[in-house]
Specification:
By secondary structure, the chain is mainly α. It has 18 helices and 4 strands. It has a two-stranded antiparallel ribbon. Belongs to the PDCD4 family.
Length: 445
Amino acid sequence: MATEVESLNAHDGVFLLDGALVDGEVDEAYVDDCEALAEAEANGNWTPQEKALHEARLKAKAKRRLRRTSPKGKLNGNDRKSRMGKGRGLPKKGGAGGKGVWGAAGMVYEMEEPDARDPNYDESSQGDTVYATVVPELDERDLEKTVNPIVQEYFEHGDTREVQMLLKELNLGSNKYEFSSLAVSLSLEGKASHRELTSRLLSDLVGKGLSEDDMARAFDKMLQDLPDLILDTPDAPQMLGQFIARAVADHALPMEFLGRYKGRVDCDHARAALDRAAVLLSMKREIVRLDNVWGVGGGQRPVKHLIKEMNLLLKEYLVSGEVSEAEQCLRDLEVPHFHHELVYEAVVMVLESKGETAVQMMVKLLKAFWKTGLITLDQMNRGFNRVYVELPDITLDVPHAHIILETFVDLCYQESVITKHLRDACPSRGRKRFVSEGDGGKIKN
């Protein structure tokens, strides 16, 4: 066995795993083990399996001893040199990389944002959690469905602040200018009061959700869409011109808006709208704000002005006799809650008139208004009751007012303009008369 140990392969005085030399010196423990193995083999006490197991143990023991005693750079298990014969033998990333490594010397670490995917991420230690509501941007179709109810409701209440709050809740994105064009389109199909409210809304929204550029884009689109708008609103060019003039005067549109179109307009309708706006802006007395371009509509008018308009309406009717024209004028005033004033003025005008013509014409007019529903039962009753209450004062100027009123009330009842209860409520002055001498000269009522 000693002979076999001496015959093991060696390289540079160092046996590779199987030798008994370490740097040229004999490992005595290894030699003793080999002698014990040879003696046991000679006595025939070991089986082949025991012999193989013992040899493996000896090899492993020699390998461990070799690792502990080998010099630096030779058969070192911690050597970073590539086993494939590649590289220069330097550590990876200069010793600053790899798992569990702090990095190179002198490296300064910055604060890193916590990663929610990190298994050690603790949500409670990150402070208060803020949840934000993301509103998707409205496309063109959804924009129209959302904006139309807002504008229609605004025509009822007239509060521009509420519209501003509703617009802040919407994500209009790059289609903000579409709101102005939709509002103007709806007002073109409505009343004069709606157009007045729309002009005020556009003026109030500039700088509070919409810019002058957004407003200019909206009117550019309106000018391009005029051929389609005329189909529903024949007066669309003139109305749009008034909108442009009012917007420029209210500083909702830039002053140079009209100058952009000089010599560049091919559409006759757009040219008519721009000419209308230029005429209004070039009027005398240098109008700063065209506040009356749409008139003062609806209940926003002063009461005295409404009374004057209704008196003028009745006088024109007595001259022309056109019931349809009077009806249209009354509708244009847009004050259905104030129609009792028309009834009152009509009855007073009958009491102050001379002849039967005014009586017959006024009965005809009130009957037409009653049939069309323009004047309701409540408004009719309120108008007549006002006359009944003020009849004593009216009698001072018109002595025969009682007689005329009774005749007029009877005619209205016959034409089903008023109810029987209202006819019976008409005051009548008791007439004193002298009876014949045969009655004793007594005065009877």
